[in-house]
Amino acid sequence: MAEDDPSAIRSIAISAEDAVDAYVYTQENPGEAVLRATPPFHGRMRARIHVYRIDDTHLTGAVHISPDAVIADDVLDEYPKLEENLESVDEDDAERLRKRHAEAVEQWRARASDAIVESVTLETDDSHEIEVKRLE
């Protein structure tokens, strides 16, 4: 199997903090954050947080794993959205809403860190399921 063939991957080690940070970043900012593994590929790989605006996987050969693929769906559904249109409220109310949202996100982060899944499907030419190994 070639070193640039992601089908060689059997397990991926991720930091729960990276997964949670990537998910929150994508919800709150422009651009996208993923967990990225780069060639050469082998049976056990480490994926680290990677932020981008343009997907360069076709150039680098990297594999991107969406953070929402490694966090349990029920926890993803609980992500606190900033519902209010902050432009329509006065500055003091806007600040209170931002603070309340930030506190809710911090509480969500704690739950999400404990909700890392045991496996994920890599979407490659021959998509296959791999184990997720949580780094402490």
From TrEMBL:
DUF8009 domain segment(s): 3-135
Pfam families (UniProt xref): DUF8009
UniProt protein name: DUF8009 domain-containing protein
Organism: Natronobacterium texcoconense
